[in-house]
Design brief:
About 40% of the residues lie in helices and about 15% in strands. With about 260 residues, the chain is α/β, with parallel strands linked by helices. Helix 2 (about 90-95) packs across helix 5 (about 140-155) and helix 4 (about 120-130) packs across helix 9.
Length: about 260
């Protein structure tokens, strides 16, 4: 493994029937992750390797992918990964949808593992929910937001509104848990106030630990709420690898198109 890569194993060794690998933007030294809510059963092992991105600029993304992505893939495969997911919507947005899809295809060709990305999992999740007109709660800079909207437009998803808090990577990974959760609620509500006719709300990004906001915002606005990290978990549910999870929103519970669950 080359300098700068970081590897994390989130489960103890034991009887494992599936290994889910993730290529993350940064490692736990730059972005400590307290014990997350266990959305997957214990026999699904989650491992990760980091490309240690310098920033979410086009230059920073290209440098990290070109110099460290394949080293991360090799490390995950050495731990017998059954799937490999490229995390980070800003990374996919800067690469563009055609390049992301090509990268996933090449990853599968080289490894034989199922290759995915947070971005493509989110697109699939929104389609599963029957949502083609969405609101986005984003904390990223205007340039990143424009790239994100372009990515989703290429997947035939219309973005009715998108918020901003002007963040790049440094600001994103320096947030406290409390700041992130507060911002998820604040921007989620702002996005839905701007676009009350949206068929779903996307809380874009993983650094702000927005899972806690999902069921509450769904209850508040009556539409499904998706985050890219839970879209990755949903992929395993949809594939029959993991069971549905209740209490954390319609997507993880296995829900499909239902329209609004209550008037707003």
């Amino acid at each position: 493994m080359s300098k700068g890569e970081r590897v994390m194993n989130t489960s103890q060794d034991g009887k494992v029937r599936f290994v889910a690998g993730t290529v993350t933007p940064v490692g736990t030294d730059r972005h400590p992750m307290p014990q997350p809510e266990p959305l997957l059963p214990a026999d699904i092992r989650r491992i990760s390797a980091s490309i240690e991105i310098s920033d979410y600029t086009t230059e920073g993304v290209n440098e990290a992918i070109q110099q460290r992505y394949w080293g991360c893939v090799d490390e995950l495969m050495s731990q017998r990964a059954n799937s490999i997911t490229l995390a980070g919507f800003p990374i996919a947005s800067q690469l563009g949808r055609p390049r992301v899809r090509e990268l996933m295809e090449e990853t599968t060709r080289r490894t034989g593992a199922t290759a995915d990305s947070h971005a493509e999992a989110t697109v699939a999740a929104l389609r599963h929910l029957g949502a083609s007109r969405i609101a986005i709660a984003s904390r990223w800079s205007e340039q990143l937001n424009n790239a994100l909207v372009s990515y989703l437009n290429q997947a035939d998803i219309e973005v009715l509104t998108i918020t901003t808090a002007g963040q790049w990577a440094r600001q994103a990974f320096s947030m406290s848990i409390e700041q992130g959760v507060k911002l998820a609620f604040q921007l989620g509500r702002e996005a839905m106030r701007r676009a009350a006719s949206a068929e779903a709300l996307l809380l874009a990004g993983g650094a702000w630990r927005s899972l806690a906001a999902v069921p509450i915002l769904e209850e508040d606005f009556g539409v499904p709420v998706v985050t890219n990290p839970i879209a990755q978990v949903w992929r395993l549910i949809a594939a029959g690898v993991a069971p549905p999870v209740t209490g954390w929103g319609r997507l993880l519970a296995g829900g499909g198109p239902q329209g609004r669950s209550r008037p707003v």
